[in-house]
Design goal:
Layout lengths: L16 H13 L16 H15 L4 H12 L14 H29 L6 H11 L6
C-alpha cells in the first residue's frame, strides 16, 4: 500500500505590495467566522483564505477600509469585526459581562447581609435560659 500525499492549493499572494499591506492590516481587524476568537490574519481555515481573497479583491477595486468593513458587516454581521463598534446593537456584547458581574456582586452582598442578620446572637431572657437549662440537664429519655 502506498502513502497518499495531498497538497493544499497555495494562498494567492497579491503582486502589488501595497495591496498585500492593506489586506494584512484589514485581516488583523477582521474575525475568522469559523475559528474561536482568531483574527482573519492568524487563521488557517479554508473560509479565512476565501475571505482574505475577497478582501484582496475589494482592495484592488479601490475600496476604502471603511467601505470594505461595511460590506463585510452587511454580508456577515457585526461578528466579522474583531473589535465591534460600540452601538446600541452591540451594547450587550460590550457591557453585558460587566452587568452580570455587578448583578452577581449585588446578590452576594444581599446574601451575606441576610446571613449576618440570621446568625446574630440574641441574648436569652430568664425564662428562655431556664427552659434551655432544663432541656440540657435532662437525664433520661424525652
Amino acid at each position: 500500500m502506498g502513502n497518499v500525499a495531498s497538497a493544499k492549493e497555495a494562498v494567492e499572494v497579491g503582486e502589488e505590495p501595497w495591496v498585500e499591506a492593506r489586506m494584512l492590516h484589514l485581516s488583523e481587524e477582521l474575525r475568522c467566522l469559523v475559528c474561536q476568537n482568531e483574527t482573519l490574519a492568524s487563521s488557517r481555515a479554508e473560509l479565512a483564505n476565501d475571505l482574505r481573497v475577497e478582501v484582496r479583491a475589494l482592495v484592488k477595486q479601490g475600496k476604502t477600509d471603511k467601505e470594505i468593513k461595511e460590506y463585510l458587516v452587511a454580508r456577515y454581521g457585526d461578528f466579522v469585526l474583531y473589535r465591534p463598534e460600540v452601538k446600541p446593537v452591540t451594547w450587550l456584547l460590550w457591557f453585558g459581562p460587566f452587568a452580570v458581574l455587578l448583578f452577581a456582586l449585588g446578590l452576594g452582598w444581599l446574601y451575606l447581609r441576610e446571613r449576618q442578620k440570621n446568625t446574630a446572637q440574641q441574648a436569652l431572657d430568664g425564662a428562655q435560659r431556664a427552659q434551655a437549662d432544663q432541656i440540657l440537664n435532662r437525664t433520661g429519655p424525652p
